């Protein structure tokens, strides 16, 4: 993936060295049963991604492409989950980061605050850490916290699948009070829609960067609703995100939707679940972790300090609703061709994915592609990201 994105060879060597020396040891025991990580359908504790910004032409050797990955840190001997803050402190140390990880003063402030807000000392955390590679050889960390399930007794913390965001107000007050207006807008949307469409909280995330340039991401998954109408409603918060260029971005998102899910095209208003057997021919991705959600649409809402801005992102679960990875590659290639990539050689997406994930044919089934996402960015440009599982337990 780094080579296809034309990263300098010195950066490639540095990143691969870092992965081998510092990351592999946190991927859990090497055993045939696997780790049953929450991160992916198949239980792989690592997920990789690339993003091709909308303002550059896609294809091999394109320098605008970004490469990232995330892991669920797991002890290699015991299989127990590793504590989030301790992992972050290790990676931002000189020894743990090998001098590559950004470790400016205050980069862990938001992560530490969120950890203390969500968990007590005795709680077992469910935590992901992301690694964003830059072409200069630097790595920026991202943190992802999965709240605990709601206990039977009253609690002042936020919990998994909450639709009442009142507890988050105390967290936001501590992080940056300017985020409150954005939270109020999400709350207003949640109060207006029927219960099955409410955005249920699944993950809280932030970057490991100085506070003034950080962001709070709320990952939410409604309990029902997988039609184009449902996707559009949640992506725009019921029309509340009437920001510049939203209509144009929605046109691109609708095109992507129709290419990936022709059996539930936007004009049909069909639920993805209704056509699941037809679309996948019964060959759906096997879920190894009993806790990993198997269906539905996932969204995140990025709250940006000092701006009142909410930037949405939709996660399209292609491993659940598409026939196989070759189909997904073809759909993406058509989408890129419609947006400036028409000069690329036919089949370039399949070739690049097959080169990076060569353990099986793409046409065999789905599962290498996990999600395809569509996001609105700060400059109101849209961005498509492809997420991959290495299927380490296949």
In short:
By secondary structure, this protein is α+β, with helices and mostly antiparallel strands. Helix content is 28%, strand content 18%.
Topology:
Blueprint: H1 9-23, E1 46-53, E2 66-71, H2 84-91, H3 94-97, H4 109-118, E3 126-133, E4 139-146, H5 168-175, H6 180-192, E5 201-207, E6 216-220, H7 228-235, H8 246-260, H9 276-280, E7 298-304, E8 309-316, H10 318-321, H11 325-337, H12 348-356, E9 369-376, E10 382-388
Antiparallel strand pairs: 1-2, 1-10, 2-3, 3-4, 4-5, 5-6, 6-7, 7-8, 8-9, 9-10
Distance between the termini: 20 Å
The averaged pLDDT comes out at 89
Shape: globular
Look at the helices and sheets and give the structural class: alpha+beta
What does the oligomeric state look like here? single chain
- Mind describing the biggest β-sheet? 10 strands, antiparallel, barrel
Order of helices and strands: HEEHHHEEHHEEHHHEEHHHEE
Rounded radius of gyration (Å) = 20 Å
**How much helix, percentage-wise, in residues?**
25-40%
Strand order of the largest sheet: 1-2-3-4-5-6-7-8-9-10
Taken as a percent bin, the fraction of beta residues is: 15-25%
Extract low-pLDDT stretches: none
Give me the count of strands.
Answer: 10
Tally of contiguous helical segments: 12
Task: Explain this structure.
This protein is α+β, with helices and mostly antiparallel strands and 394 residues long. It has 12 helices and 10 strands. The chain has a 10-stranded antiparallel β-barrel, surrounded by 5 helices. Strand 9 (369-376) and strand 10 (382-388) form a beta hairpin. Helix 8 runs antiparallel to helix 11 (325-337) and helix 11 packs across helix 12. It is globular and about 50 Å long.
């Amino acid at each position: 993936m780094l080579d296809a994105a034309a990263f300098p060879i010195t950066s490639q060597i540095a990143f691969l060295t870092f992965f081998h020396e510092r990351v592999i040891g946190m991927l859990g025991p090497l055993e045939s049963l696997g780790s049953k990580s929450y991160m992916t359908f198949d239980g792989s504790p690592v997920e990789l991604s690339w993003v091709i910004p909308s303002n550059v032409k896609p294809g091999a050797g394109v320098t605008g492409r970004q490469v990232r990955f995330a892991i669920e840190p797991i002890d290699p001997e015991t299989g127990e989950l590793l504590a989030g803050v301790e992992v972050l402190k290790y990676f931002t140390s000189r020894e743990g980061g090998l001098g590559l990880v950004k470790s400016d003063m205050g980069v862990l402030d938001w992560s530490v605050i969120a950890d203390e807000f969500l968990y007590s000392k005795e709680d077992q955390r469910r935590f992901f850490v992301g690694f964003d590679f830059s072409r200069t050889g630097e790595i920026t960390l991202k943190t992802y916290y999965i709240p605990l399930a709601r206990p039977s007794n009253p609690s002042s913390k936020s919990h998994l699948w909450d639709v009442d965001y009142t507890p988050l107000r105390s967290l936001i007050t501590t992080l940056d009070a300017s985020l409150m207006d954005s939270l109020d807008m999400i709350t207003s949307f949640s109060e207006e829609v029927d219960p099955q469409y409410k955005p249920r909280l699944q993950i809280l995330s932030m970057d490991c960067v100085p506070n003034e340039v950080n962001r709070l991401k709320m990952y939410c998954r409604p309990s029902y609703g997988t039609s184009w109408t449902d996707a559009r409603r949640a992506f725009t918060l019921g029309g509340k995100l009437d920001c510049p260029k939203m209509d144009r971005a929605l046109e691109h998102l609708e095109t992507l939707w129709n290419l990936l899910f022709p059996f539930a095209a936007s004009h049909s208003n069909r639920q993805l679940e209704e056509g699941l057997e037809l679309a996948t021919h019964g060959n759906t991705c096997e879920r190894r972790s009993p806790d990993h959600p198997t269906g539905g649409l996932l969204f995140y809402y990025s709250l940006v300090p000092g701006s009142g801005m909410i930037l949405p992102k939709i996660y399209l679960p292609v491993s659940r609703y598409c026939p196989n990875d070759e189909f997904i590659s073809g759909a993406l290639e058509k989408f890129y061709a419609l947006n400036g990539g028409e000069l690329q050689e036919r089949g370039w997406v399949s070739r690049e994915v097959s080169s990076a994930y060569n353990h099986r044919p793409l046409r065999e089934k789905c599962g290498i592609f996990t999600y395809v996402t569509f996001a609105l960015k700060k400059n109101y440009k849209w961005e498509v990201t492809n997420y991959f599982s290495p299927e380490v337990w296949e």
